[in-house]
Amino acid sequence: MTDIKRNFIGGEWQAATEASENRNPANPEDLIGLYARGTAADVAAAVAAAGAAQPGWGRGSPQLRADVLRRAGDLLLARNDELGRLLAREEGKTLAEAKGEAMRAAQLFHFYAGEAVRHPGEKLDSIREGVEVDVMREPLGVVGLITPWNFPIAIPAWKSAPALAAGNAVVLKPADLTPACAHLLAEVLQEAGCPAGVFNLVMGRGSEIGAALVQNPDVAAISFTGSERVGRGIAAGCAAGMKKVQLEMGGKNPMVVMADADLDLAVNACLNGAFFSTGQRCTASSRLIVEDAIHDAFVERLSAAMGALRVGDPLEAGTQMGPVVSESQLAGNLDYVRLAGEEGCEVLGGQRLNRPGSFQAPALFLGARNDMRTSREEIFGPCASVIRVADFDEALAVANDTPFGLSSGICTGALKHATAFRRGSKAGMVMVNLPTAGVDYHVPFGGRGGSSLGGREQGRMAMEFYTSVKTAYSFAG
């Protein structure tokens, strides 16, 4: 067990006695490595190290924080090919998507390097003569970050970078399925000169490591991305401990296709939104809501395009869709495929592919209704329900009839439909003639309802979650 990839606590790589195998979902014979399985004691040590390091980091020069984050971004860029291949092997994204995600991580660190020295405050006139008012944002202290398997470098980056830029110390717990990219991020931050204890990595099971972070009284805030079920438990735990909490959870995102849409554009947007990244995105287009007048032509074109997708090894050139991330995830997807048929849908595709690895054909559920379980529950795989509607008003009503509210989209050639949808959609992000998945790093990310709770991620708004507001009054005499 000497080759275990270790947890990073207090600036040191800590020895571990237990580890998890990290295997390639496209090739189960490909062992990526053995990664430490941490304990609650490791969390306690990491939080203690973070608590000791945070005051110097938070009260020190913002230029130091900016320099560390900028160097981290530079190192991520320099290791883009390595990180992209690692990501493709452990998560199953195509190599092109994996390198793009690695690039995004670098961009995030560069962006927040700038934010570290643009930390805003405000000076206001008091209503009382001789009194000055300053409004300041201060770091929270120690922040626990719990990240998912589907974006194993981008999401650790978009949580860590603003948390560090704001002057917090971090304990990162990555998904147990995909620890390798987070481990590489810890290496990068160490090389970038991040002071000991400011960034800590504890890998292991969410039920143990995540719970220990939530329960630790010295953790001031938790930022979590994952399932709604786990998110609700974290919210309850944070409320009990009076912690600040940020949750990004599921989605059942609608893409409306109007009869006035450019059909080629609509098919491409739905193909991308539903099936790229193997549908394993919280912003994936899982409900395709199609106006009756164009429904049959749209289905014919989309099903042909879906059938032509090249599903295979993510490291091979030309692959458009890789494997499902794990056997357990694939089993859940196949259960939903069976359920769609039982609910009365005509199912196109969706079967397990006859090859080594966790491969599934993309699926369309035709004749779906919005009240079906397959139209209401997040599948998190390459499956999309096609729902026929009469007109725009029905399309908007169906799009909004969901417990989630992360991303929504419409394909239309009419300005009136685009404008009405942007105003009427009950989602945190709205796309017009674009896939529901795919966002920029410098603007807010988040949703409503069962999709999100707490402050927005990414962009300048992310700094609001990772800081506390202090209002200071001074009598000048």
TrEMBL record:
Residues of the Aldehyde dehydrogenase domain: 17-471
Pfam families documented for this protein: Aldedh
CDD domains documented for this protein: ALDH_KGSADH-YcbD
Keyword presence, Transmembrane helix: no
Superkingdom assignment: Bacteria
Keyword field: Oxidoreductase
Family: Belongs to the aldehyde dehydrogenase family.
PANTHER family named among the record's database cross-references: ALDEHYDE DEHYDROGENASE-RELATED
Protein name: Aldehyde dehydrogenase family protein
Source species of the chain: Tabrizicola soli
